[in-house]
Each structure stands twice: as C-alpha cells, then as structure tokens.
Amino acid sequence: MEYIRKDNESDFESKLRFARLKLIDKVDLDWEEIVGILGLNCSADHLRKVSYGLIEYDNYLKDNGVAIRILSISDTHIPFQLPIETFKDYIGQVDILQLNGDIVDMQQISKFPKTYRVSVMEEIILGRQYVIDLIEYIKPKKVVVTYGNHDIRFQNYLSKNLDSDLLELMPQTALDLIFVDGFNHYDKRNRAKTWYEPLKKVFTDIEIDYTGNWFCQIGETIYCHPSAFSSGILKTAEKAMYFFRNEGYVFKSLVMAHTHRVGEFVIGNTTIFEQGTCSDVTKLHYSDGRLTNSQKEGFLYTCQDENGNVIKDKTRLVSLN
Question: Which CATH class is domain 68-319?
Fold first, then answer.
C-alpha cells in the first residue's frame, strides 16, 4: 500500500512522501499512526509541523534553487493598459507582483496635448479595478508597489492649485487612495456617493505593500521609477545604478521603469534592466514629431535564490513589440 514505508527509501524520503500524502488527504492515517509507521521518536504535532517545512524545502530544491519569483510590471498608464491576459504564462507562478510605477496616466492633468482627456477620478477607479483584476488573475502571495512620475502628478497638480493648508488633507499620489486610504466618488450629477475600499482591505489574504516611494529593494535587486531621463540606450538605468551606489545601497541588479525601453546590460558585478511599458504604445503620443526612438512594450520576470541573488537562466526580460 502507498502509505507503507518502502525499503529503498531514506528517512528524509519516507517522511516527505508521508507528508505529501497526508497534507493532500491521500492517506487515511492520523499523525500519531504515521509516527509509529516511520518509527520516529517525536510527537505527532512535531511531525505535522516539520512536514510543512519538508515540503517547502523539497519544492525549493526542485525549482533549482528558486526561492522568490517576482513579476515586475510598470508603466501601465491606465487608461492605456495592456490586457491582463498579457501575463497568462505567470498565473500561479508569482510570489511577488511588483508594480513599478506609472500605474495611472493622470491624463487630465498632463502637460502633453491630448485630443481628449479621461478625468482623474475615472482613471483612479479604472486603475483600482485593473489592479484588482490583475491580482485575482496572477494570484501572487504579495504585492509591492512603487510610484512613478505620472502617479505623483497628482500631488504636483494639487500643490499648484490648492492652499498649503488644504494640501495637508490630500494624499501624495492616487496610489495612496487605491492601496491604503480608499476613497469616495461624489457623483454630483446623480447626487450619489460611492465608497471604494482600499486594496489592503480588499485582499485580506495577500500582503499589499505600498512603499510610498519611487523605488524599493527586494533581495539584491532594486526596482525604481525615477523622474530623470537620459536619451542614450540604458543610460537612465546606468545613472540610477551609480546614484544608489553613491547613496550606500548594496545590490547586484537594478530594474528600471519609466524609459519605455527594453534592454539588459552588465556593468561590473551589476546587471541593469530597462523593463519597457505595459501600455499600448500605439495609443501613447508623447513623442509624436520629436524624432525619438519608438516605445517598447515589455516586463520582467525575475527569479531569486535564497540569498536574493538573480538566477539569470530563470529570469526573463519579455519584449512584446
């Protein structure tokens, strides 16, 4: 029978096999009986707890040392976002969903000319729903969010148009409202008020970490979305790398949003990435007539070992156009 100890099994192998069978309800034995079959000198409760660790460690070994899987998406520029089906290959394969800024476009308060403009409130509502759909689709264990230069247009616009005392009542970015605070939509035309719960409360089983910053560090990798821009290939990412080095940060790779380019380069012992945009670039017209290089759609899937180092042969820089 499958739950009888096999002669050719090591102690580790037999414990692991029983643990898997028990935890997926394939064996009609209690933990006390399993302790007896395996001839262990421990309590049933101890074996049950150890079993979870055995399975986790075995999964780690089977994944060739992959401890953390990170899907980094940036520059969705809602309402110009790519469909969530773009990331279908990563469903259930993500430990951390990292949103690297410019989630919303803030089109209405942009300095760029537009033939039409989506309101700030509409963008915030659309952005909140897109992130909800994305989380439910990808099913990550954790979400880490940084803001970008478009997201912080919210504060910049308010600071120009509101008295400083009123400004203290307002958040820094629309992302504060989406992830942390929640917000009301006052529909004056229809005399209706709708409350939108912050995503920290929507997803009680998933950790939502809104950093309130333009960069974050996960393991040995920095993810960033600065406002600075250099026209040379990978020059923005290189400039960011030197900035963080000079500020005393210790890291081995850097992932750059903001540039709408896709590229990878190694400088010394540091790998730098520009991850592209997850928006439909045919609908973004920021560079029309400026004779700049075309924008590139893309994202980064990073695998790290238990020390936070990037596993290069497991990491994918995906270019979509």
Answer: alpha beta
